[in-house]
Amino acid sequence: VNDKATFLQGLLERVRRNSAKPRLPRAAAAPPATSVPQAAAAPVVAAPPPSPPAAPVVAAPPPSPPAAPVAPPPQTQPIARAQPIYHVPATPPVTEIAVEEADATVEVMELDEAEIVDITLEDEIEAAAAQAPPAAVEVPDRLAAKSPAPVATDIDFEDEDDRPPSSSRRPILAASSLDEALAGAADEHEVPIKTPPPESGPQEALPPAQVLQQKPLELDEPGMEAELARSGPAPEQVGNTIELDEPAGPALELDSLPAESGPQPGRAADALEAELRPAPSGRPVETAPRPTPPIEKGPESDAPELTSAVVPVSAPIPPPVEPPRVDQLIPPATARVEPEITARSMPPNDVPVAAFASAHRAFKPATFLELLDASLKLGG
Amino acid sequence: MAELGFDPSQSVKFDFARGSVEIDGGAHLLVPTSALLALCRGAGVEAQRDFGRNLGTELGRRVAGRIRANEASVETLVDHLGGDLALMGLGSLGIERWGRALVLTVSKSPLDREGDVLVAAVLEGALQRAMARDATVVPLAREDARARLLVTSAPAASKVRAWLEDGVAWGDVLARLHETRSA
C-alpha cells in the first residue's frame, strides 16, 4: 500500500510538472485538413464542463485504510485550476486534437438553437462559417474540437507516447500500407517471413532467400540435361574425396577358380555317397550301386570361360593363403551315424503274462508283513 | 501306535574329543568303501553274508525299536528301513511288487555291483530281526546304479540262482515262481 501511495504521489508531481510547462498548440501541428474553423469550434467549447472526479482520484493517496477517502494535501490544487488537457479520441488517419478548457474569464453564454451548428457535415460547417456572425466567444488558436463526443480527463505522457510498449519486439515500420511493409522486409531480409517460435521451442531454419526466389528446375526444359552434365555433382554430394595414388606394384591377374570348388566332371560320384545299412529283416538289398549318370554337357559349356580381371594395387600383396578344403571342414560322408537306443527293462514276451497279471491284480497286501509272507511262499 | 515317518535328526553323533561316531547310541566306524570291498573280496561269499547279516541285524533292531514292523504298511517300513540303510551309507531303498513277489531295489550304492551280495545279506538280517522271518535275498539284476533283490524263501532262492545261472531273464524267473505256485 505504501508503494502504491508513493507511486501515486510521484505521478501527481509529474502531472503538475507537465501542466506547468509551456504547451505548444496542438492545432498547429495538426494537418490543415483536420483543423476546425474557429467559428465552428466555438459552440463545442461550450460543451459540458470537465467532470471533477479525476481530482480526488489523483490527489488522494490514502495510505491507510485504502478504501477511506482522504482529504487532499493543502498544496494540491485542483486540476481545473491547472487547465487540464482533454483528449479527444481520434480515429485514423485524423490525428487527435487536444482541447483545453476555456479560461475562467470566458463567460458562458446561452446560445440559440439557430446559432448551434452541426460540425459533422463539412459543407454545413462552411456555410455556417459564412453566415454566422462574428464569434461572440474568443477561442484561442490552440483550442480546437473535432466532435462533440464526451471527453475524458487523461494524463498526457508526452515522453512515452512515441516509445513502443515493452512487450513489442518488432520494429515499427514506416510504411503506409501492408504491401510496402512486406516489400521492404523482402528487400532487407531482416524481418523473417514466418514468425519464429519462442526461444524455448524448436527453431525452424528457413532456406535462404535466393533459394526461395529461384525458379524450380524443370527437366523438360531444353538444355537442362546438358546443364546438369556440365555442372557435375554438388560439393555436398561429393564429400571428402580422397585422391588415390597411382598403382606402384605390378599388375596382378586373378587366377581362375580352384578346381576343388567347382563341379568336377571326372570325379567319381560314388565317392560322395554314404553306404546304406542293410535291412534287418534279411530282405535282399541291392548291393550294386546304381551308376551315377554323367553330367551332360550343355550348350552353355561351349561358352568361353569368364575372363579374369586385372586389379591394380598400390601395396604389396601378402602370399596367398590356401583356403581350407571342403573335406577338411565337413566330415567325410562315409562315417556312420547310428542312433543311441535306450531299451526299457520289461519282461520278455515269453513270460506267461496272463498268470502274472492276474496274480498282480488279485493280490493287494495291506501290510509289509503280508507281502513278505506271500513272497516267501513263491517257489516253495 | 501311529506310524511316524523316519526322523534322521540326532541319529548320528560325532564325538571329536573321544574320536567316536555313534548311530542311535551304538558305536560305528567310518570305513572307506575301497577298503571294505577289498576285505570282502578276500573274505569270500559266506564271510560276506555273515558280515552283512550282522550289519542287518543291528539295522532291523533299530527299526523294530521305532515301529511295530509286523503291523506297518509297505510305505512305512520302506521309510524306516530305507532310512537306516541310508544312515549306513549303503544307498537308497525301494520296493517293487511283481505279482506276489517282493523285490527290493537299492540305488546308488557306493559298493556298486561288487557289493550286491553284501547289501543283500544286510537286508536279510534286517528282515529277520525286524519281521521275525527267515527270508533270503537274491540279487536278480542290476541296471546301472540300481540293483533288484528278490525276497524269497531259502528253497526258492536256490531255484532262482540256478535259473539265473542258466541265463534265464529275471522277468522269467519271476514268472516261473508264480507258475510253480499255481501248479
Structure description:
The complex is a heterodimer of chains A (380) and B (183). Chain A is 27% helix and 3% strand. By secondary structure, chain A is mainly alpha-helical. The termini of chain A are far apart. In chain B, a hairpin with a 2-residue loop joins strand 6 (136-143) and strand 7 (146-152). Chain B has a four-stranded antiparallel sheet with strand order 4-5-7-6, sandwiched between helices. A three-stranded antiparallel sheet of chain B has the order 1-2-3, with no helix packed on it. Chain B contains six helices and seven strands. The A-B interface holds A 345-348, 350-353, 355-357, 359-360, 363, 365-369, 371-380 and B 69-74, 76-78, 97-102, 127, 131, 133, 135, 141, 143, 150-153, 155-156, 159-160, 169, 171-172, 174-182.
What's the layout of helices and strands?
The complex is a heterodimer of chains A (380) and B (183).
Chain A: H1 2-20, H2 26-29, H3 38-45, H4 54-59, E1 85-87, E2 98-100, H5 122-131, E3 152-153, H6 158-161, H7 178-188, H8 209-213, H9 224-231, H10 235-238, E4 252-253, E5 310-311, H11 326-329, H12 353-362, H13 368-377
Antiparallel strand pairs in A: 1-2, 1-3, 4-5
Chain B: E1 12-15, E2 20-23, E3 26-28, H1 33-43, H2 45-66, H3 74-87, E4 92-98, E5 101-107, H4 116-131, E6 136-143, E7 146-152, H5 154-165, H6 170-182
Antiparallel strand pairs in B: 1-2, 2-3, 4-5, 5-7, 6-7
Helix pairs in contact in B: 2-3, 2-4
Largest sheet of chain A: 3 strands, antiparallel
| Distance between the first and last residues' Cα of chain B | 40 Å
Q: How would you spell out the order of helices and strands of chain A?
A: HHHHEEHEHHHHHEEHHH
How much beta of chain A, percentage-wise?
under 5%
The number of helical segments of chain B is 6
Uncertain runs of chain B: none
- Taken in chain order, the helices and strands of chain B follow as EEEHHHEEHEEHH
Look at the structure and give the mean pLDDT of chain A: 59
Q: What Rg of chain A do the Cα atoms give?
A: 58 Å
* Anisotropy-based shape of chain B: globular
